[in-house]
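User: Can you help me understand a structure? I only have the sequence.
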Amino acid sequence: MLEVGPHIYIYDYELDLQAIRAQGAGGQNVNKVSSAIHLRFDIKNSSLPERYKQRLLATNDSRITNEGVLVIKSQESRTQERNRQAAIERLKEWVVKAMIVPKRRRATRPTLGSKKRQAQKKKMRSDIKRSRSRVDDHS
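Assistant: Let's start by predicting it. Here is the structure, written out as tokens:
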């Protein structure tokens, strides 16, 4: 059982851990040993509270399938056990991130002083550009 937060747990039976062969460099060992880990976590059918499930499913990430299954692949380490721990830790980080409620943005308006300063800057810039132009000699 993985404790994610106060009174929030992910049970072991909700995690589907599969050992697969790692990609990349590793010499002869890489072709013989299944040291990488695929962790599959079905968000929709998990025991997480509904609001956290919704936040997790709302994240637009390629690691979440159309069926609502989060797939985490871990192959950083050469040992299967370390990769398993890394995958579980990443899952925990994902859920903890979903527990944080984003602050609502409140619309603000520019102050009267900032509007006046902007108008003043615009006028000064206009005067500078006008002074660069050719002077007509139509007197």
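Now, to help you interpret it: Residues 7 and 85 are 21 Å apart (CA to CA). Residues 2-99 form a domain with the Double Stranded RNA Binding Domain fold (CATH 3.30.160.20). Let me know which part you'd like to focus on.
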